[in-house]
Amino acid sequence: MTAIAQFRTCPDTGFKVHSAAEKLIKANAVAAVVFLLVGGVFGLSVALTRWQEVHLLPADWFYLALTAHGLDVLLVWIIFFEMAILYFASAILLNSRLATPWIGWLQFWLMLIGALITNVAVLQGDSSVMFTSYVPMKASPLFYLGIILFAVGALLGCCVFFGTLIVAKDEKTYEGSVPLVTFGAITAAIIAVFTIASGAIILIPTLLWSVGYISHIDPLMYKTVWWAMGHSSQQINVSAHVAVWYLIAAVIFGAKPLSEKVSRTAYLMYILFLQLASAHHMLVEPGLSSEWKIFNTSYAMYLAVMGSMIHGLTVPGSIEAAQRKKGFNKGMFEWLRKAPWGNPAFSGMFLSLVFFGFIGGITGVVMGTEQLNLIMHNTLYVPGHFHGTVVAGTTLAFMAVTYIVVPLIWRREIIWPGLAKLQPYLFGFGVAGISLFMMGAGTLGVSRRHWDIAFSDATLSFDYPAAAYLMLTLNGISAILAAIGGALYILIVVGSILFGKKRDEAAAPAPAEPTAAAATSYGSAGTAAVPGTFMLALIFFVTFVLYYFVNWKYLAETWGVS
Amino acid sequence: MAIHPPENKLWWNEPIEKTEIIWVGLCLIWALIMFFMMPYWHLFGEQNLTNEAYKVEPEAHVERAEAMADKYTVREEGDTGIPVVRPPAGSDVFVVARLWEWWPILELEKDKTYRLHLSSADWMHGWSLQPTNLNVQVHPGYDFVVTVTPNQTGEFAVVCNEFCGIGHHTMLGKIYVVE
Amino acid sequence: MAESETGASGGGTGGKPPFMQRLLDNHFFLLFLGVVIPTVFYILWGVMELTQIPVANY
Q: Cβ contacts (< 8 Å) between C25 and chain A: which residues?
């Protein structure tokens, strides 16, 4: 405890970097990327099985692969990466030492061991219960045990994060309020605490049930509490990747938030209301009242959606303001045209922003409307939606920030710059395709988690329209594209860490362009207006409104339900 | 920058740029419209789930479905002789979800109303009416009363859209809607 | 220079921050709110409704 903390000063940014924090960031990021590889391979095999002409896996392997895919990417890759972000946003951005690094290592090992145990349980074949593991379907006890260990590890990581906030404040390593990116990380950590607590409430009894100590778990109760964990964990991602957007905008453009007040209030809406949206999964369940459904599914009157829409304006708005100060002032969109589209950190971040808003965001709100959920619940529309949020949004944003993190933390240059330039586009458009075509199939009624939409072994018969088969074919092709992008990411990152040219500590080949001019004066009143961003926001708004009401029209045409 | 503490220590007192104010206002109005669409549809729309649900023993639910089938079966279908049941309009119709079938097959009249009682005999299932694309979750131990009014005639399939084990993709049911 | 821009409304840097700023800087109170609100509205309210589902007697 009394050991003197080791620091180095980053030659690029001037941050004081605590070496214990740096090591933990590296360990968590590497673990994340390894599980991205494993989960990605499973995901590709799932998409190739859905493609009816290829139909790669037999039924039992399909359901096994789907379970493993969900766990490894939705949970393990993302949470490991988020642990790295939490340590970065606390220790590094606050120029502080990390509180209790040994608990940080406990976090790492618990999560790693937990993830391995659950993977082994799934691969043994008796735990193909999907990511959701709805009771009374039973997995082997190891399955739940692994997830619980993983969650305990993540909770410890949050404790280290909050501890570091206290240390930084006590040791006065920063003045005034924490940076906006750190505030975003705080939002993520707060949601994580609720997420993990809910997980403990439901998974510990379920573990005891699978061992035989408890005879019955109510399926409706399980599902309700499980989603307090399952959906909230996706809200950690939203908070974290919005923080990453701000981070990338700051590093590449020297962009400042248009208004600290507005951006932080938008985060406050997340803290207060985002987690209520766990009710999105409970809209066609028996026994829950419409009052409960409406209040919760709307995040208390859509105030959290408002938060996201605000970030959707302020992130590109801050970039526009910074670009205009640098002189890209011609017309409405010169600032965007002349943005560094060849820099994978920027292109990845901007695609993430656009896809998250247009594909993931709009569809999530539509599907989360109490009555509209009737025409989408549990169809392929659902995975289509969340591939738009979690993959095109979160994963792409995390990939983008890696191109900044590797030169700064590992002190290595990115290898294969030409391929790195392409990578976000391949992955981004691949995932956008996956998302859109799955939603297309879902709109045509195709069920999620379904091995054979031809029903060839069934007693009765039913034919989905031919367009549904086309959608799944296109989904398969998009998945191949995304897999190539994902594989490139892993190769480039691992290659850069191992073989990238060591960066001379003295020279500062700034990832950021000369930011001083843009960064000096504060935004708000003095700033140039952001007409281009406002135009983009209006396009988004019109799309949102039209798509929302089109779905009400579809709903009105179906059978009466009361 | 977003990676440094705000330069102005009293950042809350900074004025907000006009674009942001307009956008926040627009978003707030839209949020309220979306929120009030849901109660509005409860009052004026035709597609709303009730809150009517009961706790039920799976065996009791199966018995009720069998009693209904004994009374109203009009013919049998498929290799396994699944009964096709034609319950009177307005009546309680018991549907069993189990590994891996929707039992029994129903024959309903167009524009008539039926109280479907959906419950599972084993694991969780998903009642997905195709090609209409109406989807309702079905739990074991709970009877969910869903009142439906078919508005087209024809042959409809009930797909299971909640994963229920290795035979999940073979779980199909049928509903005929006649004049 | 920030002060000069906002001097009119901010009243310099010496004063106590406004309530909302103090709230947003109070991370542990935010943690409290962020855990309690969903626990009450989502979990407790939801679980209460589930326990009140009547037993079938038709």
A: 177-178
Could B7 and A522 be called an inter-chain contact, meaning their C-beta atoms sit closer than 8 Å? yes
Nearest to A264 among C24, C28, C53 (CB): C24
Q: Which fold has domain B52-178?
A: Immunoglobulin-like (2.60.40)
A271 to chain C, any CB pair closer than 8 A? The answer is: yes
**Closest chain C residue to B7, measured at CA:** C2
- Measure the CA angle with vertex A206, ends A69 and C34; round to 5°: 80
Distance of CA A403 to the CA centre of its chain: 17
- Sequence ranges of the domains in chain B: 16-44, 52-178
Segment A479-491, tens digit of pLDDT: 999 999 999 999 9
- CA distances for A301 relative to A22, A548, B7, B74, angstroms: 41, 16, 34, 49
Q: pLDDT by residue (tens digit) across C5-23?
A: 333 344 445 578 999 999 9
Q: Is A516 on the interface with C (CB under 8 A)?
A: no
Name the residue facing C5 among A198, A271, A525 (closest C-beta). A525
Q: For residue B55, count CB atoms less than 10 angstroms from its CB and return exposed for 0-12, middle for 13-18, buried for 19 or more.
A: middle
Summarize the confidence of residues A263-292 as an average pLDDT: 96
Closest approach of C11 to chain A, Cα-based (Å): 16
Q: How far is C11 from chain B (nearest CA, A)?
A: 9
Which residues of chain A are within 8 Å of residue B53 when distances are taken between CB atoms? 286-287
Q: What is the pLDDT of residues A427-458, one digit of tens each?
A: 999 999 999 999 999 999 999 999 999 999 89
Count Cβ atoms below 10 Å from residue A562 Cβ, excluding itself: 17
Q: Which of A437, A451, A354, A343 lies closest to A399 in space, CA to CA?
A: A343
- How near does any CA of chain C get to the CA of A535, in Å? 27
A157 three-class SS: helix
pLDDT tens column, B90-146: 999 999 999 999 999 999 999 999 999 999 999 999 999 999 999 999 999 999 999
- Helix A101-123 × helix A19-50 angle, to 10°: 20
Phi, psi for residue B156 in degrees, rounded to 5? -115, 150
Helix, strand, coil percent values for chain A (each to nearest 5): 70, 0, 25
Nearest to C50 among A165, A193, A221 (CB): A221
* Chain A residue with minimum CA distance to B170: A458
Q: Greatest CA span in chain C, whole angstroms? A: 76
| Structure confidence at residue A308 as a pLDDT band (50, 70, 90) | very high
State the pLDDT confidence band at A396, using cuts at 50, 70 and 90. very high
Q: Min CA distance, A343 vs chain C (Å)?
A: 32
Nearest-CA distance B115 → chain A (Å)? 9
Residues of B in contact with C20 (CB under 8 A): 12
Amino acid type, B33? I
Cβ neighbours for C51, distance < 8 A, ≥ 6 positions apart: none
Closest CA to B106 of B161, B146, B139, B47: B146
Q: Which residues of B touch A286 (CB under 8 A)?
A: 53, 137, 139, 142-144
A58 contact partners, CB below 8 Å, separation of at least 6? none
Global ipTM: 0.95
A341-502 under CATH 1.25.40, yes or no: no
Query: What value does the mean pLDDT of chain A take?
Result: 93
Closest-CA residue of B relative to C20 is B12
Token pair in block for residue B149? 């009014």
Residue type, C4: S
C6/B10 touch (CB, cutoff 8 Å), yes or no = yes
CB contact under 8 A, B137 and A284: yes
